[in-house]
Amino acid sequence: MLIDSHSHLHDPQFFSTKEAEACIKRAQKIGVEKIVCIGTDPDDSLVARDFAAKHDGVYWTYGVHPEETSKQSVYDFSGVKFDKQLPVAIGEVGLDYHYKGYNREAQIKLFEQMLQLAVDNNLPVSFHVREAFNDFFPVVANFPKIRGVVHSFTDSKKVLKKILNETEFYVGVNGLATYSTLPTPPLERTLLETDAPFLAPIPHRGGTNEPAYIADIAKWLAEKLDLSIEEVAKTTTNNVTTVFCLD
Ligand SMILES: [Zn+2]
Fold first, then answer.
1. pLDDT at site 84
2. Which of 54, 191, 216, 245 could be a cystine partner for 5, CB 3.0 to 4.6 Å?
3. CA–centroid distance, residue 8 to ligand 1 (Å)
4. Environment class of 88 (CB within 10 Å of its CB; exposed 0-12, middle 13-18, buried 19+)
């Protein structure tokens, strides 16, 4: 069994309901039995929630992507109550300094609010961090109980080492790794993800990504680590089940 720990399958910007349902079928057929749909703003997170409620094996997260601060810089989450439909994580949240004109202060403030929401609801976090690890480490250090995954890791060996040695976070490996020289974490700290519709792995590079392609990423990683695909599947599935407390 494999799990896609990070996808945007619920988002109608990228997939119609019909396409999304066909993707779920193709994923299940190939052994990708669970899919985590990641929220990127308050409305999108509720779309993910409703999509998960309608589809077996689909889970959702609640989050506001750091780049949203370029549209709206101040947020209030005091009214957010999850009640019965609890997300499996808060995310994707974090810091992204890639595009010029980013609002560093607003991003840090939003990130801290989301971390507090995770603490208040005892949820893990799916982190999105790009070119911002210098701020990421001190911010998360103020929330010592936080668990989670650094999704789509694209930084240096040095930063990877720091994540592995100084935190207990898992690290998300996706299609990017199949066509780059990115450092990869040890298997026991790895989560597999597609980030569908983005970052399709080899041999689908350039096309629309979908959860079934987790199998291609698993195969690539197995070859790289000289392990069986079963071993990669077993360990990474165990990792994501643990961090997101999947049933
Ligand atoms: Zn994403």
1. 81
2. 191
3. 6
4. buried
